[in-house]
Write a structure and sequence with these properties.
Layout (H helix, E strand, L loop, with lengths): L1 E4 L12 E3 L2 H8 L5 E3 L2 H12 L5 H13 L3 E6 L1 E2 L2 E2 L5 H10 L18 E8 L5 E10 L6
Parallel strand pairs: 4-8
Antiparallel strand pairs: 1-2, 1-3, 5-6, 7-8
Length: 148
């Protein structure tokens, strides 16, 4: 007899599980103790639908967590000055190095940006392969000379 468990039952399974048990066990113990109900076709179909939904993989879970951690993060990148402009444009590799210094390891291809050629703050989207997105604030500032 198929029953749906209303509570965790050590010998059978967790709450919500659909299990096959002897009819006598269900009628003399599970039903009177309100531990289970008869599993109707609707309950079995709903349980099957839950089993068929895609599960989040470990990589997707890690990307979701990383996306949450870096969303809104400010990355400050000091650059040398030449004629009141950055001596070289700031690239995704430079942003990656700044993120690495903050303890985050993000591949360059996740950073969707063009080279930054001026000082100031630029919003940089981070697109993860699993579909998660984050925004970084990249702050380009003049490099401070030691000893001045």
């Amino acid at each position: 007899m198929l029953v749906s468990l209303l509570n965790d039952v050590r010998a059978l399974g967790p709450k919500g599980a659909i299990v096959d048990v002897p009819e006598g066990y269900a009628r003399s113990f599970l039903f009177p103790e309100h531990l289970a109900v008869l599993a109707t076709k609707d309950v079995v179909a709903a349980d099957k639908a839950l089993d068929d939904r895609p599960k989040e993989s470990k990589a997707e879970r890690e990307e979701r967590e990383l996306a949450g951690e870096v969303d809104g993060l400010e990355v400050v990148i000091p650059v040398k000055v030449e004629k009141n402009l950055p001596a070289q444009p700031v690239t995704a590799d430079d942003v990656r190095k700044g993120l690495k210094e903050l303890g985050f390891k993000i591949p360059r291809e996740y950073l969707k940006m063009n080279a930054i050629k001026d000082f100031g703050t630029v919003e940089v989207p981070v697109m993860f392969p699993s579909g998660f997105e984050s925004q970084l604030s990249v702050i380009i500032e003049r490099e401070r000379n030691e000893g001045c």
